[in-house]
Batch of 4 targets.
Target 1
Amino acid sequence: MSAKISSSKTLNPTTRDEWNFAPEVPIGNNPLFEWPWNFKNILTYHRDYWLTLSEVSIFLFLAVAGWFLHQSQLGDISQLEWGLAAHVYFRNFILLIMFAGGLHWLLNRQKIQGTDYKYVAQFGHRGGGRFSFSNQVHDNMFWSLASGVLFWSFYEILVFWMQASGRAPSLSFAENPALFIAILLFTGVWIAFHFYWVHRFLHLGFMYKHVHALHHRNVNVGPWSGSQCIRWSMRSISVPWRSILSCHRTRSM
């Protein structure tokens, strides 16, 4: 169900010449959000959604690995401490550098794909004056690491603390394995629904002008461009999954 990519030669003649390529339209969507339902398409989509190397499977792996490698070092999460906050922040800081920085190095520095799948063939954005530090990459890195990771970590710590202190409900696998797995599988659907409406909210006048416009300064986007949105759209898929994985441990504290 992924969108097919076409070269700029097949685009509508009204398309601006600067676009290097664009997906064929209409862009494929999760068949759960298409009516009438086609159950074969739904099953096929979610089979590929979970059982292939995809954004979802990568983030689920990170959630599981992050829990077993790092959460055990956090101690009693029901007690908010600066050490807890620093641990979560720097873990997320390193994760973002690894992924966004690694992709930037491969795609924009080493150019392993050339201009394939680039909306704009040029590497780097014209009109650097619109960006902080007059540099798109430095601007994106600063707002991603200084602001994006800060909000991302705040949401994560808040959820863990509320569960561990009894301020939010939690569920363990041992308590109800069927419901636990059902919630886990439904997480991707909830993220799609949640992100759609939060994104719509960010495009309202005040929010767009004072918050979301920072992201939309990027037309020639790169790996660092999307992570600027973390602070308001709560994009990290690994956060709700790590929250689910934390349920059993936090209830015992």
Target 2
Amino acid sequence: MASVPRILIVDDDATAIQVLYGALEGLGEFHFATSGEQALTLLAQHAVDLVLLDIRMPGMDGFMTCRALRRDYPDLPVIFMTAAGDFAMEIQALEVGGNDFVSKPFNHAVVRARVTLHLRLQAQNAERRRAEQEIQTLNVELEHRVAARTAELAALTESLRRANNALQQSEERYKYAMAAASDGIWDWNIQTGKAYINPAYSRMLGFAPGELGDDAQGHWTDLLHPDERESVIAQARQRLEEVGTYEMEFRLRCKDGSYKWILSRGMVVTRTGDGYPLRAVGTHVDLTARKQHELQLREAKELAESASRAKSAFLAN
């Protein structure tokens, strides 16, 4: 929707056009057509945000015009102009795709209020569509990123398996890889509770490398959101024991007290003789930006739904 709304008035009566313009002056940029054919031609040349359409016109009347424009402009708000008390016309106007109607002779306050409402709804719908597109783009980018990180983790695990007979050298190369990664990487000794995290893990939460210590409780358990701590720990342990891998989303507390949404993936790389996990490795990806966009989208949808309910209540009165 343009920053200045564009309104098309379609009526074969020049006096009616003049009256409407006087009632709506200041609400936007105005275009005028005196027939349905002229209106369709103008719409093909200029984008508009709302149409005020007279029903009774020679040749192509308002109903025919509405059916024609709905094929190419399904989301364009159309407000019909009807004779006062002509309920059959009002019903037909809604059936052919009209969004609302105003009665002649015009009440300036009512006309202005209804046009203002539909312009506001149109702007909210445009913002919702923009937000949905932005979320979709962000999700695609995130999926690519997660897939890339998953491939990196699989390659790293395979490298550790092949280098099992030279464990010291393998561990050294592994630590170098974790130090260079952009996402958080962790290596957890489940039996002792000790864990290694790369510098990116700490920086993601606002801590300096080494500030979180070398135990899983200090840099994971204690940082989990209180509402999620017990369930996240229980689910992680259960999945590592039973499946050998997990993928979870949860919130971790940053140094400044705020929380970030994290996508955590982990897998068991060493087990005891009876199958109990001894060691697991994994990654952390910051999901906070995506979560914020999802929240904005929900708020935009709620705003649009609230406006729609307000319109319904207005029309019911």
Target 3
Amino acid sequence: MTASARSGRLGVGIVGAGRVGPVLGAALGGAGHAVVGISAVSQEARDRADAMLPGVPVLDVPTIVERSELVVLAVPAEQLEALVAGLAATGAWQAGQLVAHTAPGFGTAVLDPARAAGAIPLATSPAMAFTDEHGPGAGSGSRGACDGARPGAADRAGSGRDGARSPS
């Protein structure tokens, strides 16, 4: 059975082909989700994406967001806020779309522009050091944490820089 034919499988887009994005893309693809595209700017990033996600097209960010049910923002923390706001300004976010970021120290409030368009924000924090290891075992056995907001609920004061909630 193909990933698209299985119940509960998502079309996943990866924004960022540094050390985190391709590993998460490979893990999600390995779990049966369809990786619909990855963004990569430098030749090194393109080579990494091709090695870890063979056959996955390198696309521009707006196209990835348009085609994805889950958008993983694996970009440097200093680029995250402007990226999310810029995509919101162009009307790229879709109602019901899942959007996750991997920037440590940020909660879901940095994704508020996407949430305002109806997207569902998730803040993930991989609890591992990512390497340039390629292949099916890359990132296996890793642990992480995820924070998501209830639909329509605003973030409340907590431990993150932008008001991420602390675990209860």
Target 4
Amino acid sequence: MSPAAQAGGGGAGARIDYVSPLPPVRSGIADYSRDLLPHLAPLCDLRVVRVPGQPVADELAERWRPVDAAESGRGGRLPLYQMGNNRYHEGVLRMALERPGVVTLHDVVLHHLLIESTLAREDFEGYRERLAADHGWVGEMVARARDWGEVGDAALFSLPAHRTLVRRQRGVLVHSRWAADLIREENPDVRVRPVPMGVPLPPPVSAAAGRALRERLGIAADRPLLGSFGFQTPIKRTLTAIGALASPRLADAHLLVAGEVSPALDFERRAREAGVADRVHVTGFLDYEEFEAAIAASDVCLNLRYPTAGETSASLLRVLAVGRPTVVSDYAQFAELPDEVAVKAPLGEGEEEALAGLLAELLADRGRLAAMGAAAREYVARRHDPAAAAAAVAAAGGEPLAAVPSLDLRVAGVRLRGALPGLGSGGLAAWGSGKLKGAHCVRLWVRHLALQLLGLPDIEPRSTWVANGASLRLEPVCDAAGRLGE
């Protein structure tokens, strides 16, 4: 009997080698894989592959008997990689490039992983080579600028650093239609499919645990409590939530921030500036039981985001699964949530005021909050059932797959929409050919692009660019004389 069959796999269908971090690795994807494997095993010939250098919890090792990474893909088996945007997935990335299969992109943007595996180890050349391989001259330019210390965080989201990976694979799975559309737009030859993220439905929140946590924090039972959960980075927009708390309409409300906080953020200072320091409670990292109690204590949960790495937020699904009403940003994959499950807060100018108004309306309508909580729990039970998620993954693995392409994949940094004089609609392929009558126009456009990516002001704006998650769209407009318009 094969190790897969002994471990509980061996069902009909695809022969899958499952490659992912597993507990005790502190990664949401490790927890996701732990929960998915029991549902996936009966649907295929499943074998778990150990990620090099990573531990596997004894109970998981005993059940799944993971094989060495060198065995992955042998004998015609299909590697199924679980790919995330942090250092725990460096070994997964290396294996996926060496032995292509199907990759599940839990994060569309992998630029942060690239930095951790190169620049964090003082490997500038490795960073430059890999970013240029994915994004051509734009990647080269951003890498050089970062080496000079002249680039901010915008490029982390504008340049996803995933193209070599996805174009090397035989198929790609993602967890939202938005992410699938982004991958298809920039990689039209890649087979990509959205599948649900499996989330086990937990028991409803414990009201008693919530009350006890409020007491420990000194928050009265009759005070409205907003909650923001998970690791706190600038893109979670908790600073915006603190600013909204200063609105007279939220004068009685408190904000609970439950999770480790990035060193880049100073919530206490922002709360003092807004005059709400006595109503902002930052707990730091919480264990599972305390985290659940924090969710139970909250009347409305916040899952704001901008920009996004294209992730499906595990903390958001956890909040919805226990039946808590939630406010999200009206943006990217979060906009896909049904209106009865989550209220969408607009981004841009006036965001704090708009958020304060939405929250005040919600907190004043307890009936609506209860209905949203019930709808959220039902949505997770229906849309994110682990068995259904496993069936979708197994079905994708059993379909005919694309052939493995060459590893030599140097791709263009951007794709032009429209035309430039002398360049036409063929992108930058004619660059340097000596046939560009509008070369001055192109030079102006490149100059402006460089300033935008570096986060530096251009005193004479010449073009418009829009960073949309993993996709960078540039639409220069030229007049007959080759001048760029506004």
